[in-house]
Amino acid sequence: MNTPNASLAKVGGEGQQLQRRAFYDRIGEAHCTPLWEVLHGLVTKEPNTPCLPNLWQWQQLWPWLQESGRLISAKEAERRVLVLENPGLRGRTRITHSLYAGLQLILPGELAPAHRHSQSALRFMMHGSGAYTTVDGEQVTMSEGDFIITPSWAFHEHGNTTDEPMVWLDGLDLPIVEVLDAQFREDGATEQVAQQHAGTNLARFGNTMKPIGYKSRTKTSPLFWYPYARTREALEVLRNSEDPHPSWGHKLQYTNPVTGDWAIPTIGTCMQLLPGGFVGASYGSTDSTVYAVVEGTGRCVIDGRELAFGPKDVFVCPSWMRYRLEADSDTVLFSFSDRPVQEALDLWRERF
Ligand code: 1HN
């Protein structure tokens, strides 16, 4: 018989390896490559993320943020941000495989100039209050714990007319847009003139109502300001009226009030309350998740490590790794992940 398998079997061992290598080199010149050499690394039994668990402590970051404020102006930097780079993804400007995060500092009197891009962004207020951001001409004054959306392709700029520095957590879908090669950006012509305060935005969309006849033009929530006071109050009512979920306590997801879907089509955002003394059951899901601590102290136990967190710390739980949340005192956690993308593609899974 002279089937290909029979002739391969005859060569065997080292000779076979050499033959194969030579073959790969030959086809490689024409940009072909054998699948069988990489198949098992590509289609793994379970998620095999390069993302590692990590904790960034405010106590360590705050002096560095202040130092960055002395080294460069917001104007020169365009955005003065310390990127939270995942230890398993160094050099790749991201906190998980699919999402970017950084802490942005804006000092009194500074202006971060207007631009727009196809990437969607979230801002979560970490420190200080009174600075503003403008979203397509609507200005919002931000306070600690507020969640703000900068939709894809919306002009935005930030300013601080107070006498206090302000820091927020930026979350962007940069790696997702990058893998799709769908990115565009444009600078704003001049300083944006705020046409309206975001109180109007909240009045239109923030009361489970909408202007009569309103139709969405995009998938992003038309409500772009979710003030902390309302979120916190909702969680407090829940804590007084129902038992906490064994794994995540009392947890609410931010929604687009018009569609009921996630507030940002590529980034899922949530806020949860863990009552003091809470010891969570272990949990894992396919969406690597970034947590920002608003109130309280506790621990995230993951991969044999204890990430002991306090207010304004940020930590990340990679895809599919089981972790447990524990709270010493009442703890409020903001979180974000790529869950909406995974759900849209029927990929999202969880386990307890
Ligand atoms: C951006 O536009 C902002 O507008 C912050 O504040 C961080 C990171 C990468 C790309 C664009 C902002 C960013 C960003």
Describe this entry's structure for a reader.
The radius of gyration is 24 Å and the shape is globular. The chain is an alpha+beta fold. The longest helix is centred in the first third of the chain and has 16 residues. Helix content is about 25%, strand content about 30%. The protein has 2 domains: about 40 residues, no CATH class; about 300 residues, Sandwich (Jelly Rolls), CATH 2.60.120.10. It contains 9 helices and 23 strands. The model has no long low-confidence stretch (mean pLDDT about 95). Strands 1-20-17-22-15-14 form a 6-stranded antiparallel β-sheet. A 6-stranded antiparallel β-sheet has the order 2-3-10-5-8-13. It has a 6-stranded mixed β-sheet with strand order 11-4-9-6-7-12. The structure holds 1-hydroxynaphthalene-2-carboxylic acid.
| Main sheet properties | 6 strands, antiparallel
Shape: globular
Gross CATH architecture of the largest domain = Sandwich
CATH fold assignment of the largest domain: Jelly Rolls
User: Which ranges are low-confidence, i.e. pLDDT below 50, for 5 or more consecutive residues?
Assistant: none
Distance between the termini: 54 Å
Mean pLDDT: 95
CATH class of the largest domain: Mainly Beta
Strand ordering within the main sheet:
1-20-17-22-15-14
Estimated structural class: alpha+beta
Beta fraction: 25-35%
How many β-strand stretches? Answer: 23
Radius of gyration (CA) equals: 24 Å
Q: How many DSSP H or I helices?
A: 9
Number of domains: 2
Estimate percent helicity: 10-25%
CATH homology group of the largest domain: Jelly Rolls
Which small-molecule species are bound to the chains here?
1-hydroxynaphthalene-2-carboxylic acid
